[in-house]
Amino acid sequence: MAVRDNPKTVETLPKTGAPTGGQGWSRGRDDPGQKTPAGPSIDKETRRRRDEQGLDRLCIDTIRTLAMDAVQQANSGHPGTPMALAPVAYTVWQRFLKFDPEAPAWPNRDRFVLSNGHASMLLYALLHLAGVKSGAEVAVTLDDIKRFRQLDGKCPGHPEYHHTIGVETTTGPLGQGCGNSVGMAIARHWLAKHFNRPGFTLFDYDIYTLCGDGDMMEGITSEAASLAGHLMLSGLCWIYDSNRITIEGHTDLAFSDDVEARFLAYGWNVEHVGDANDTDRVAEAIENFRRGSDVPMLIIIDSHIGYGAPHKQDTSAAHGEPLGAEEIRLAKRSYGWPEDSAFLVPDGVREHFHAGMGQRGAKLSKAWSAQRTAYRAEHPDLADQLDRIEKGELPKGWDADLPSFPADAKGLASRDSSAKVLNAIAAQYPWLIGGSADLSPSTKTNLTFEAAGSFEAATYGGRNLHFGIREHAMGAVLNGLAVSGIRPYGSSFLVFSDYMKPSIRLAALMGLPVVIIFTHDSIGVGEDGPTHQPVEQLIGLRSIPHLVTLRPADANEVVEAWRVIIGLQRPACLILSRQKLPTIDRKRYAAAAGMARGAYVVADGKRSKPAVILIGTGSEFGLCVAAFETLEQEGVAARLVSMPSWELFEEQDQAYRDSVLPPEITSRVSVEAGSVIGWDRYVGSTGVRIGMHGFGASAPIKDVMTRFGFTVEAVLAAARDQMAKPG
């Protein structure tokens, strides 16, 4: 049953004067650490609570002022949201977050995701004040905060995974963090089902995600929330900062959703806190979440962006630019803070963090480690899996049952051969899980062995994920699974890779070993027509740094593609056909293992020096093979090159690349049913690029391929023209 709350009335801050709300704490401006002497009539408990509340307020205002000062010094950034959300984030960390600052990668830690990543100084201040470190490396020092948004600093403009200790995922593009957190919640339930045993609760962590009005407007957030509600992902809490301000002004300009009603309809519990400064009410809402609701929870919190800045609070001027020295001075005055101080961390602040979350987290992580030692003795096989997940290692024998495919002129669609390979790997790789955006019958990505099952609400043990028609969210969820140690894959049609581009880009930026399977790879889709026939998508994927795109030419190249993918520590896109592809006779032609180097010589003609080089990928490579065989019969020395991955080929040394594509051989033809952009790198300025120069058409595959020049005759004509050119 959804939980509702009548929001408290929030007063509007006057344009001058002190901020309204808050905990009623004040200190002398000359000594922010000075405590008011307790009168003799105050008992010890009251004094302790008053002192603790004073320390809480001191910590909160330290977060606020560090954010203001860092943005001002950088002359760039977003001060307003950290100023507004400091009480909320502090309450989560200090009173609830299960996190050991000295073991920030502890597997059962609670996750804290800042989806509104522009508020990054909020997170950096927390990491600093909590003393987060890994071994001898401190996550964020005060000097790091002073170098906010500077080259090679630990405090970039938006939080970056693997760049700053304690950052759980890269955020900034709004909605992505929300989607990631759903992946983290799926991982939490899957890990619990897979590893928890009677007497051993290894996984029961919670995921707290701070998000804002921008997140709520982005469509990816709606997709992710819908999926989370459907799966009843308890342990997931989104905290929505409803400050009603965006870059252009008040949200009334473009946003009037009843967010509470939306999330109730998604199947979430919803609470409403009327004042971000009311830390007791914030804590009450989180306690309601922690009581064990069987669905995710949204906590809507009304806040004042730029809280305490008398002229900029509740305006877009507090969002994405420094407040200015005078406004900062007035804001600090409203907090009772030394007005001319900068980067001040009063005595007692760090110690208070340590006494709260630090000691709590250390105790919990040590208890978990002791439990894991006992678990290892009783469940050694599961403990070995858990060790490998933590270390990013593969299971032993993951490739023991990889198939091989005999030569076959009719062959298999590469989506079908991939299905066989995927199932052979997954049967030996227990934490490889994934699915599709409602397309598994077409993408052939369903795990069909008996133990696989489906990941569903209330059971959570299956390995087939059903994302529904939600490509945007699927990409972000895959990233959330990957940062949680799961090896994830997702699938859709290649043309819909456009829906996933932001998430794929972030996977590449984070170096996550996400696998994305794209089928229906070309105009070979045929009758579905140009709306479903990819043209520019391949070059779009190839343009993403650190992403590996593989387009295998036959079933055995598919096997080798998967072998490469499983060994990667970065994302990969596997591009597969709907139509059947001939399985090349590997007794006559080179072994498919050459594809691991991105491109390889499949065959050479009768002479030592080829007269022309034919380069093909994927479903068009068969045209190159047929053309090569015709030229061979004619006595022409040709070279046949398969190039399934530009990225892998570019990573080879120059000597190898020159051995495949000798610089002196300029007669070259490339064949790929996609955009020709980029192929001049491999065929040169005088080579022929057989590809797409516009969109496709709706017709049977044979007619479409002929219309756009993908025939053996066209390849032969291009090869002959190349050989006939001067020089």
**Structural class given helices, strands, pairing?**
alpha/beta
Count of separate DSSP helical elements: 24
Query: Portion of residues in helices?
Result: 25-40%
- The radius of gyration is 29 Å
The main pleated sheet reads as:
6 strands, parallel
Describe what is shown at a glance:
The chain is of the alpha/beta class and 727 residues long.
Walk me through this protein's architecture.
The protein has 727 residues and is an alpha/beta fold. Helices cover 39% and strands 14% of the residues. The chain is built from 24 helices and 22 strands. A six-stranded parallel sheet has the order 12-11-13-14-16-15, with helices on both faces. The protein has a five-stranded parallel sheet with strand order 1-4-5-9-8, with helices on both faces. Strand 15, helix 18 and strand 16 (572-575) form a beta-alpha-beta unit. Helix 1 (44-74) packs across helix 3 (120-129), helix 2 runs parallel beside helix 3 (120-129) and helix 5 (176-195) crosses helix 15. The longest helix is centred in the N-terminal third of the chain and has 31 residues, at 44-74. The chain is elongated, with a radius of gyration of 29 Å. The model is unreliable at 1-40 (pLDDT under 50).
Topology:
Elements: H1 44-74, H2 80-96, E1 111-114, H3 120-129, E2 133-134, E3 137-138, H4 142-146, H5 176-195, E4 207-212, H6 213-217, H7 219-231, E5 236-242, E6 245-246, E7 249-250, H8 259-266, E8 269-273, H9 279-290, E9 297-302, H10 325-335, H11 349-378, H12 380-391, E10 408-413, H13 414-426, E11 432-436, H14 440-443, E12 464-466, H15 471-482, E13 487-493, H16 497-510, E14 515-519, H17 537-542, E15 548-550, H18 555-566, E16 572-575, E17 580-583, E18 600-604, E19 612-616, H19 621-633, E20 638-642, H20 646-650, H21 654-660, E21 668-675, H22 680-683, E22 688-692, H23 701-707, H24 712-724
Parallel strand pairs: 1-4, 4-5, 5-9, 8-9, 11-12, 11-13, 13-14, 14-16, 15-16, 19-20, 19-21, 21-22
Antiparallel strand pairs: 2-3, 6-7, 10-17, 18-20
Helix pairs in contact: 1-2, 1-3, 1-10, 1-11, 2-3, 2-9, 2-11, 5-7, 5-15, 7-15, 11-12, 13-18, 15-16, 19-24
